[in-house]
Amino acid sequence: MHIEVRHLNKSFGSHAAVQDVSFQIERGKLIGLLGPSGGGKSTLLRMLAGLETPDSGDIYINGKRVNDVQPQLRGIGFVFQNYALFKHMSVFDNIAFGLTIRKTSKAEIKARVGELLDLTGLRGFEHRYPHQLSGGQRQRVAFARALAPRPELLLLDEPFAAIDAKVRKELRTWLKQLISTLGITSIFVTHDQDEAVEVADEMLIVQQGRLEQQGSPVHIYTDPQTAFVAGFIGHSSVVEQPASLRGFENTSITAGARALVRPEFVEVGREQEIQFPSAAEKGQVRHIFFRGAHLELDIQVGDNRLSAHRSLDQEPLQPGDEVSVLIHRLYVISDESATMVENPLKVDPLPVHI
Amino acid sequence: MAGGAVTVQLSEKAAHRPKHITESVGVRIVLISIALLFLVLVVLLPLLSVFIEAFKKGADVYFAALRDPDALSALRLTLTTAIIAVPLNTVFGIAAAWAISKFRFRGKNILITLIDLPFAVSPVISGLVFVLLFGAQGFFGQWLQAHDIKLIFALPGIVLATTFVTFPFVARELIPLMQAQGVQEEEAAASLGARGFQIFWRVTLPNIKWGLLYGVILCNARAMGEFGAVSVVSGHIRGETNTLPLHIEILYNEYQFAASFAVASLLVMLAVLTLIVKSFIEWRTNAKSPERSADDAH
After folding, report:
1. Which of A84, A131, A132 sits opposite B188 (nearest CB)?
2. Same domain for A45 and A120?
3. In what order do the strands lie in the sheet with A338-342?
4. B43 near B50, Cβ under 8 Å?
5. CATH code for position A270
6. Complex prediction ipTM
7. Is the separation of the CB atoms in B144 and B178 below 8 Å?
8. How many CB atoms neighbour CB A143 within 10 A?
9. Which CATH number do you get for residue A188?
10. What is the residue range of A273's domain?
11. Which positions in chain B have a beta carbon within 8 angstroms of at least one beta carbon in chain A?
C-alpha cells in the first residue's frame, strides 16, 4: 500500500476539521477527495503534505511513518488552489525552483525543465512572468513546478477552481491523461462531483471532517453507503413519505423513512410511452428546464415533487400536462445508511389488482 | 508626534470618471485652489524661507557655517546615528512583521500595539525614559558608573533614543504587505524542499523588497531629523553630542540666524533627497505591480 492514513484527527480551536479518518491508497491511483466546502478536505491534504500537524493519528508513505518528517523531505508535490507561483520569477525559474534548492547541476535543470515545458505545452513561455499568463497556463506552471523534483505523491488543492468552465474541462482531460502517463499517485481536492466522477479512479467522500465512503465513482454512484453520500452524489429529490409512491406502498422498509429519488430513476411520459404502465401513477408537469442535451422536468406526484429527465427527441410536454410517472427505484435513507429499493410492480409484467 | 506613513497612489481612474458622477467645474477649481494654497502657505513658503534666510548674509557666511567644525561634527554624529539605528530597525521590523504575519501566537495584538507605542508617546518622554533608566540617578546609573560605561550624554544614548523613536517605520510598512501576501508562496517553497533562510531569501524578500526599502527610507528620514528624544539624552555638548537638529537650535538661540538656517538647509536637502528616492521607489513599485495586468491576461 502506497499511502496509508490511520485515525487522523485535527481541530482548530473548537472546530474539528478532520475526525478519525482512515484510508489506504494504492500506488499510481488518481484519487478525488470530494465533499462540500469547509468539510476538511484541504486540511486532510495539507496534513499529508506536512503543512499542518495532525493532533493524533498516523500517516504512512511507503510503509514509513511520516508524521515527524518535515514537508521538505516528504517527496511530495503540492499544487495550490491559487497556484502560489513565485511572482518575481519567470516560468523557467518557477519550474526550476525545487531543483535549484537541491543544488542540481545547471545542465540537468535545463534538461528537466525543458522536458516539463514540453509535457505541459508551455514551450515558448519560459521567459514570461506569472502575471503575463492566463489562468490555465498558470495552472500548468504550478503543475510543472510540483512535478520537477520527481515527487512520489502529487497533491492538488482545488486545481481547477479558479479557471473558467470551458478551459476547466480541457484541463481535466489533460490532467487525467498526463497523470496516467506518468503513473504518479495523485490526490486532488474538489467540491465539484462532476469533476471527481470524470477524473478520479477512486473517490473519497468527506463531510464534516469524516470519511463517508471510499470507492470507484461507479461504485459510489450505484451503491452509496450513507445517507449523506446518497444525497450528495447525483441530483436527488427528497421524498418525505415514500410509502405514498406507487409501487412502494407495501415495502416494509419504506414505512416511516425518507427516500431519495434521482432523476434517472424516474421515467415520465404519456401513458403509452411508459414501459410498465401498470406500475406508473399520475403526475403533473410543473416546470420544464432546458439543460442543453436534455430537458429537466419538475413533476408533482401526489404530495411529492420529483425531478426527471426527458430526451429532446421525445414528444414535447408542456407545463400543466398530465403525465404518467414510473419510479424505477429509490434509496431509502435512515440516520446513517442508504438502501436501494427496486419498484416491485415493475418486475411483474401482469400485476394483479384486487 | 505621530509619523504614520502616507502612501499616495495616483490612479489613472480618477481622470476617467464619467461626467455625471463627478463634481462641477466650479467645485473642482475651489477644491484644487484650497489644496494648493494651503500647501504653498504651510509647506513651500517655510521651506523657501529657510534658504532665503540661509543666504541672507551671502554665500560666504553660508559656506562658513557649513564648514564650521561643530557643524561638521554634528553632521558626522547624525549620519553615524542613522547608520546604526536604521539597520537595527530594519532587522527588527522584518522580524516583527514576519512573526506577526506568518505565525499564530498568544499576545500578537499586544505586540502590534507595542510597535505603535513610539508613535503614540511624545518624543521627549521617549528620551526621558532612557535618562531615567541609564542616567546618573537612574536604575542602572550606579552600575554603569561603576563599570565606567557612558550611555547618556554620549553616542550610545543618542542611538538608543533614535532607534526607539524610529522603530515602527519598517514594521508598520511590512505588516500589511506581508499579511496581504499570505503564506502560500512560502508553503509552496517549503513543499519544493526549501528551508527557512532559503525561503526568506528567495521568496519572501523579493516579494517585500520595495515595501521594505520604502520603510527604510522613512525610518532614515526620521532618524536624521529626530529632535525631541535626542535633545533629552544628548546633553548638547558642542562638537561631541550635538546632532544636526540640535546644532541648528543652538545656533538659533545664539542669534546666529544665517548660520542656523544654513545648517537647516542641509537637513532640508537631505529630506528632499529622501523624498526623491521615495517617489522613485513608488514609481518603480507601481510599474512592477503584477496585479495590474494579472486579471487581463486570460
Report:
1. A84
2. yes
3. A237-239, A258-261, A329-333, A338-342
4. no
5. 2.40.50.140
6. 0.78
7. no
8. 26
9. 3.40.50.300
10. 235-347
11. 184-185, 187-195, 198, 202-203, 206-207, 290-294, 297-298
Sign of CA dihedral B228, B233, B239, B243: negative
Contact A248, A254 (CB under 8 A): yes
Q: Give the domain-ending residue among A161, A188, A223.
A: A223
Query: How many Å apart are CA A208 and CA A228, to the nearest integer?
Result: 11
Alpha-carbon distance of A300 to A246, in angstroms, equals 13
Grid cell, residue B144, equals 554603569
A276 CB within 8 Å of a chain B CB: no
Three-state secondary structure of B234-270:
HCCCCCCCCCHHHHHHHHHHCCCHHHHHHHHHHHHHH
Interface test with B, best of A74, A131, A155 (most B CBs within 10 A): A131
Question: What count of other Cβ atoms lies within 10 Å of the Cβ of residue A236?
Answer: 21
A-to-B residue pairs, Cβ atoms closer than 8 angstroms: 76
Measured between CA atoms, the residue of chain B closest to residue A51 is B187
Distance (Å) of CA B275 to CA A172, A205, B89, B217: 51, 58, 19, 8
Give phi and psi for B87, each to the nearest 5: -60, -40
Q: Which of residues 56-95 of A touch B (CB under 8 A)?
A: 71-73, 76-78, 80, 82, 84-88
Q: How many domains does chain A have?
A: 2
Chain A residues lying within 8 Å of B189, measured CB to CB: 86, 97, 101
Q: Are A254 and A329 in contact (CB under 8 A)?
A: no
C-alpha cell at A88: 518575481
Residue B236: band (very low, low, confident or very high) from pLDDT cuts 50, 70, 90: confident
CB contact under 8 A, A84 and B187: yes
Calculate how close chain B gets to A342, using CA atoms only, in Å: 49
**What is the amino acid identity at position B222?**
R
Cα A181 versus chain centre, distance? 21
Comparing CB atoms, the residue among B185, B190, B192 nearest residue A149 is B192
Residues A160, A192, single domain; the answer is: yes
Cβ within 8 Å of B, A 131-150: 131-135, 145-146, 148-149
- Cα(B130)–Cα(A20) distance, integer angstroms: 56
Tens of pLDDT, residue by residue over A225-283, are 888 888 888 888 888 877 778 877 766 666 667 788 888 888 888 888 887 777 888 88
Beta-carbon separation of A71 and B203 below 8 A: no
Average pLDDT on B39-53 reads: 91
* Number of Cβ atoms within 10 Å of the Cβ of A223: 14
Cα distance between residue B10 and residue B282, in whole Å: 10
Cβ contact A78–B187 (<8 Å): yes
- Tens of pLDDT, residues A51-84: 999 999 999 998 889 998 888 888 899 999 888 9
